[in-house]
Design goal:
Pfam families: Ish1 (PF10281)
Low-confidence stretches: 1-24, 292-382
Organism: Clohesyomyces aquaticus
Signal peptide: 1-20
Keywords: Signal
Largest sheet: none
Radius of gyration: 27 Å
Distance between the termini: 82 Å
Strand content: under 5%
Protein name: Stress response protein ish1
Oligomer: single chain
């Protein structure tokens, strides 16, 4: 067979199409029920003829998908863009505050959503739509749909249980779940809906009605989830940095003999004649032992004494996602009422993480000043 240029182009285009199909897959809304397509269009105030067939509705969603889902900031006003940058911990660049195009260009630098990630996200709404709900709202949803609440009730386990039972809850009330209707918010009062919007700097629709409030919450829930993920990543990074600084402070407060004794107790081989800098390097290499379950009670106590000097916020945040969510609940008041605005949460998290980092930075001098008492305690029990 003669391989012509035309053949090569045809094969290339076919391969490109195959890659696009397997990599990105079909748009998720291709699988939506007709009522879900109509709901999505209504949520974004996109008019459609009432007599539209399913294909017409799908094409209308397709024409607007990128502008409203993949790059929604193109639809934001200047104030909304500024709020987003502020919530992410960034300041509008000089001279850009009143220039919407300049602000949007700045948002593009930090925006992480892509067509593929959006498609995956909307392929499993249950994985993120509950992220910004309060504990009481999650509990009310579980009670409403007969979902057993795990005990003790932790936010992570509560979210996990609701996500696992989400589809069955929708099936029981004969509702769609891919792009859920008002049934999802049946346990929310109008005050809850307004508070959710207000706390995130989103104007409530005017004139206001329950349907419009739910539509506004629903279309902004993906952004709320992305913002919370960003806050977690930022706080987690700060907590980890603080954790490392604190372990360094503790190690620096130990004598050479204490490091050797700790190493021996934890099965760490110390070469004969090791100098202090080599001992410290060896200890840092095995720093996980300082924080793990296998560490001795004495070292744990000494480490705990050092960490308490740097603030309890850091220690809680360092316990992984469960610890982070509990810490964030304390910071933004999730246990007792509606979630605080993402902007407020970020400021609180940043302030707390910053405080923890500053404390960690000064922990060395504090540990040094109190080295005598810590050393004495360790020596007495090792």
């Amino acid at each position: 067979m003669k391989f012509t240029l035309a053949t090569a182009l045809a094969v290339g285009l076919a391969a490109q199409g195959a890659v696009a199909s397997t990599w990105f897959g079909k748009p998720v809304y291709n699988k939506w029920h007709e009522t879900e397509l109509e709901r999505w269009l209504s949520d974004y105030n996109i008019p459609y003829p009432k007599a539209s067939d399913r294909k017409d509705l799908e094409n209308l969603v397709k024409d607007n998908w990128n502008n409203y889902v993949v790059t929604p900031y193109n639809q934001w006003d200047a104030k909304t863009v500024q709020n987003y940058l502020s919530a992410k911990g960034y300041q509008a660049e000089k001279g850009a505050k009143e220039n919407k195009d300049a602000l949007i260009n700045q948002v593009k630098v930090y925006w992480t959503e892509t067509e593929d990630s959006a498609n995956q996200a909307y392929g499993s709404v249950k994985d993120w739509i509950f992220d910004s709900w309060t504990d009481s709202q999650l509990k009310a949803f579980a009670d409403k749909h007969g979902i057993p609440v795990p005990q003790p009730r932790q936010r992570d386990s509560l979210l996990k249980t609701i996500r696992e039972n989400y589809q069955s809850a929708a099936n029981k009330v004969s509702e769609t779940a891919a792009y859920p209707g008002d049934w999802l918010y049946e346990s929310w009062s109008e005050s809850d809906l307004k508070s959710w919007l207000d706390e995130r700097g989103i104007p409530a629709p005017q004139p206001s009605s329950r349907d419009k409030l739910i539509a506004s919450v629903r279309r902004n829930s993906r952004l709320a989830s992305l913002n919370m993920q960003s806050a977690y990543a930022s706080a987690s990074s700060s907590a980890q940095n603080a954790k490392q600084s604190l372990s360094d402070a503790l190690l620096n407060s130990w004598s050479d003999s204490q490091i050797k004794e700790w190493a021996d107790k934890n099965g760490i081989n110390v070469p004969q004649g090791s100098k202090r800098n080599e001992l410290l390097a060896l200890a840092r290499k095995h720093r996980a032992s300082l924080m793990g379950d296998n560490v001795s009670g004495t070292v744990s106590s000494a480490y705990g004494a050092a960490t308490s000097r740097a603030g309890n916020e850091y220690s809680t945040a360092a316990n992984g996602f469960a610890g982070y969510t509990n810490w964030m609940k304390q910071v933004i008041g999730l246990q007792t009422g509606p979630a605080a605005s993402f902007s407020s949460a970020t400021r609180a998290a940043s302030a707390s993480a910053s405080s923890a980092s500053k404390s960690a930075a000064s922990a060395y001098s504090q540990a040094t000043n109190s080295a005598a008492s810590v050393t004495s305690s360790v020596k007495q029990e090792l």
